[in-house]
Amino acid sequence: MISVIILGAGNVATHLFKAFKTSSEVSVIQWYNRNLDALRPFSNQVEITNDLNALKDADIYILAVSDDVIGELSSKLPFENKLVAHTSGSVSVYDLDKKHKRAVLYPLQTFSKDAKVDFANVPICIETIDKKSYPLLKQVAKSLGSPTKRVNSDQRRVLHLAAVFVNNFTNQLYRIGHEITEGEGAEFDMLKPLILETAKKVQDMSPFMAQTGPAKRNDKKTIKAHLKLLEKPQHQEIYKLLTDSIQNTHGRKKL
Amino acid sequence: MISVIILGAGNVATHLFKAFKTSSEVSVIQWYNRNLDALRPFSNQVEITNDLNALKDADIYILAVSDDVIGELSSKLPFENKLVAHTSGSVSVYDLDKKHKRAVLYPLQTFSKDAKVDFANVPICIETIDKKSYPLLKQVAKSLGSPTKRVNSDQRRVLHLAAVFVNNFTNQLYRIGHEITEGEGAEFDMLKPLILETAKKVQDMSPFMAQTGPAKRNDKKTIKAHLKLLEKPQHQEIYKLLTDSIQNTHGRKKL
Ligand SMILES: NC(=O)c1ccc[n+]([C@@H]2O[C@H](COP(=O)([O-])OP(=O)(O)OC[C@H]3O[C@@H](n4cnc5c(N)ncnc54)[C@H](OP(=O)(O)O)[C@@H]3O)[C@@H](O)[C@H]2O)c1
Ligand SMILES: NC(=O)c1ccc[n+]([C@@H]2O[C@H](COP(=O)([O-])OP(=O)(O)OC[C@H]3O[C@@H](n4cnc5c(N)ncnc54)[C@H](OP(=O)(O)O)[C@@H]3O)[C@@H](O)[C@H]2O)c1
């Protein structure tokens, strides 16, 4: 049994705790948060604490706390030479205090407190400094049913950046779709199957091959009509910029 | 049995033909294309023709041809007062020759020749000028298992515009994710579950509620680091513009 202590009580910490509860290889022996209230609902399932000095001995300490405080919290841990992993996409492994065996366990997925998470759909990027820690973290990730990948800090940073494009920015395009349809008495609901299909298509086809539409076809008449239809200048800017981007990718002339 | 004649042999026409083959309420009695070669593979399943004067009598003529030629082809049809529907998102119902009972049957989905289509995931937007044609077209769409919606030309145009955002532009964001990961030795494959989850999330949550990430949090440090990491000026522009758009939506300060 691998013993784990989780630090933090946010989205990632909570989903990790729940997932570890179902694992037969990993046992969460203690859960820390600076504010104990967030942990109380779980106090009958695990020992909780808000005192760093009360932390027990464990195989792995997982720091699922805000990016900005990872370094500081790792320094405050009152022990050394133990395996300490953070869960951030953008923080370097070297931000952890070097008194620890430093590592990263970055779940490349979007977590919200309410939404259920199936860890089979959560690729986990692992980085370790010492070689011995790697198989242990891999076993932990595997016990959640997650695919894993060894990813260094540079690659992880790039994956996190790409995640902003395919998750946050894509979601904002959905939002714009929502605004322009509902604004005209049409229904955003009508677009939902298309949204899903667009995401499914690139599961086994490259986005390059999957592209269609007026920008790729350089259908000037439709592009012009669309720009006229858009009421907000910023939506027009986004339309122009992404049309131009598609045309650069597919070797068409600029607008 | 509702008799249908399809005109055109592209993506939409071909998927419609295949779907109608499985319908017990609709029979495709003839298939027209200006170029007969595209239809030959189906010649043992349906009567094919490239001669407009050979068109039979049918309940509905579906013009699944390029947007630019819908008006012209409808004028060339050697009959009048029959129900003629086009399948375009952006062409007005009034572009059809007024000698016909004019209508639109717009499938709000992305079709490619190879990809399989389940019409249960294809909302069909119906517009008719005369009232009597509406129930007939609705029955046709229902026989494919498709959800249907009465949508006028203005709403349809807006849905088509929104479809460009959530489909073509979103796919281009996937493409950029592909470029920046593979360019740095990371794997685009790692992002696929996130892409799917992002699309699934807005099936029962508004895109407004689903938003997360550095732009929404106004995490200036991460935004700055991401802009530095992006090599192409156009990717930086897209990053800035969509970050700004998210911040406008969520009431944060500008970059
Ligand atoms: N959310 C995602 O989708 C996602 C995905 C992959 C990776 N990550 C990474 O996972 C980590 C946690 O993210 P999250 O979304 O779970 O964050 P979150 O929900 O905002 O939770 C942040 C946690 O950090 C704690 N914290 C903040 N400041 C602290 C301090 N000074 N000392 C001690 N604890 C402090 C908070 O404690 P309180 O409860 O007392 O406020 C809270 O438990 C981050 O590194 C993030 O980049 C997040
Ligand atoms: N593809 C989609 O995802 C999608 C989704 C919803 C709606 N639509 C709409 O459905 C319609 C058809 O789209 P599609 O994607 O199926 O197009 P497509 O694959 O490009 O096929 C176009 C068809 O139009 C025919 N055509 C072109 N010019 C013609 C002319 N002058 N006279 C007669 N026929 C002509 C072509 O004949 P040849 O075979 O001889 O070239 C071909 O059969 C369009 O209005 C489009 O906006 C498409």
From TrEMBL, chains A, B:
Domain DUF2520: 122-245
Domain Pyrroline-5-carboxylate reductase catalytic N-terminal: 4-83
Range of residues in the leader sequence: none
Pfam families (alphabetical): DUF2520, F420_oxidored
Record PANTHER family: CONSERVED HYPOTHETICAL ALANINE AND LEUCINE RICH PROTEIN
Name assigned to this protein: DUF2520 domain-containing protein
Organism of provenance: Pseudotamlana haliotis
